Design the sequence.
């Protein structure tokens, strides 16, 4: 609060709640003995914030006081399993509705975003393998509550949507349970996390590498390998920074994923149409003579490879962290086995694409590759908009349509509109290509 009449001003209007807690924790460290933190007794965050050293000394004694001071300066790291994550979602929703009642609509909306991204989203993959319909219904109810805040609906309607969302959360918690997953479910979850998130990246990489090898562009192949290799390093580094150095919120994570997905959508669309334009021998020979696969072209392929892999890697690691906790010690081998199986399947798929493409006529190979990349552009567009919606950048507008998450199809007007734009762009660019071919025929 500061001291009136002195040079010690109040920081009430200069620091937010988080910064005040950071400052309080820092000051608390002045009287702490770090060695005392290693104790059998662990204080949770609520106790560390609520109790004072004098209260701990009076009730528990000097040894507990030393532990309390040390843990207050450096709170123990507590891993959050599915039960804790769902509890966090419910508790944050309660804070959100309280802020809405108090007229703090922006804060209420931000809390609703955090409730989903920092809690429920991290158990979605596990819940999908138990009951995908419950996962979808819970996600939709959370998004409906969030949208009611954004639309400024009357408090009665907002509370009604909140109760519906909390009811779905309880149903999800009941399905996940607290005793860990079975071996088979841990294995399937470990398999599907990597298979689902890595499939799109493998398809893009395999298409690019097959094209470059079939056309003798070995120097560009090395650039692509450097691109996805750097993506692995960058993804692991991002996770390490978020876990141990800086605070990366769920909204920032989804914003990053959404932007990279939309960027990848544009890039693979460009590459797909580019390949379609050069599927005929004459067009390809003209391209070879122009020597366009120079430094700029190789750099473009490397950038596309980088973003195709980096886009999902950070989130995959977070999903595996949550699954690891949920599976428990008895299920760790199953999680590792599932991930290893998915890796083998993805590598096998890439091998099949590379081997099979080498036996195809050049025109047919270019046509298939172009179609695959254009289809992935539509998928990425849907995923990108959905990620931005989850980050709170866009609202949601549910429509009567089917969901197919693997193809980026979501029953939402914004997501479907983005995919429609991608499809229209493909049709227009392909149409332009056809017209160019017709003009070229008389000349030849």
Sequence:
């Amino acid at each position: 609060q500061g001291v009136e009449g002195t040079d010690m001003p109040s920081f009430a209007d200069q620091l937010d709640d988080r910064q005040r807690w950071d400052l309080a924790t820092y000051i608390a460290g002045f009287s702490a003995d770090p060695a005392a933190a290693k104790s059998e007794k662990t204080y949770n965050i609520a106790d560390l914030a609520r109790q004072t050293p004098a209260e701990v000394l009076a009730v528990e004694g000097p040894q507990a006081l030393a532990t309390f001071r040390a843990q207050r300066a450096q709170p123990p790291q507590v891993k959050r399993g599915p039960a804790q994550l769902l509890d966090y979602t419910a508790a944050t929703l309660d804070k959100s509705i309280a802020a809405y009642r108090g007229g703090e609509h922006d804060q209420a909306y931000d809390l609703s975003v955090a409730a989903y991204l920092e809690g429920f989203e991290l158990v979605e993959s596990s819940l999908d393998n138990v009951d995908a319909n419950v996962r979808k219904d819970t996600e939709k109810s959370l998004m409906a509550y969030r949208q009611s805040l954004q639309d400024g609906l009357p408090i009665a309607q907002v509370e009604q949507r909140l109760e519906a969302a909390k009811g779905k959360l309880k149903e999800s918690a009941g399905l996940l349970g607290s005793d860990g997953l079975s071996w088979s479910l841990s294995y399937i979850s470990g398999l599907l996390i990597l298979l689902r998130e890595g499939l799109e990246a493998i398809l893009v990489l395999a298409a690019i590498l097959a094209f470059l090898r079939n056309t003798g562009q070995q120097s560009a192949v090395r650039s692509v390998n450097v691109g996805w290799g750097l993506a692995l390093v960058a993804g692991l580094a991002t996770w390490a920074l978020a876990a141990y150095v800086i605070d990366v919120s769920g909204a920032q994570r989804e914003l990053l994923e959404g932007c990279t997905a939309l960027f990848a959508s544009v890039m693979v669309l460009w590459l797909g149409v580019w390949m379609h334009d050069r599927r005929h021998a004459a067009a390809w020979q003209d391209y070879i003579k122009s020597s366009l696969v120079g430094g700029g072209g190789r750099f473009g392929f490397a950038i596309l490879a980088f973003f195709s892999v980096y886009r999902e890697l950070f989130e995959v690691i977070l999903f595996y962290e949550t699954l690891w906790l949920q599976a428990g010690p008895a299920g760790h081998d199953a999680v590792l086995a599932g991930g290893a199986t998915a890796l083998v399947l993805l590598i096998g798929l890439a091998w099949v694409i590379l081997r099979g493409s080498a036996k195809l006529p050049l025109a047919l190979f270019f046509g298939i590759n172009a179609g695959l990349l254009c289809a992935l552009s539509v998928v990425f567009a849907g995923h990108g908009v959905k990620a931005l919606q989850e980050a709170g950048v866009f609202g949601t507008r549910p429509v009567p349509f089917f969901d197919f998450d693997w193809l980026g199809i979501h029953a939402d007007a914004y997501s479907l509109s983005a995919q429609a734009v991608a499809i229209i762009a493909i049709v227009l660019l392909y149409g332009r290509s056809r017209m160019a071919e017709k003009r070229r025929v008389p000349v030849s």
Q: What stands out?
A: The chain is about 75% helix and 0% strand. The longest helix spans residues 295-327. Residues 17-69 form one domain. The radius of gyration is 26 Å.
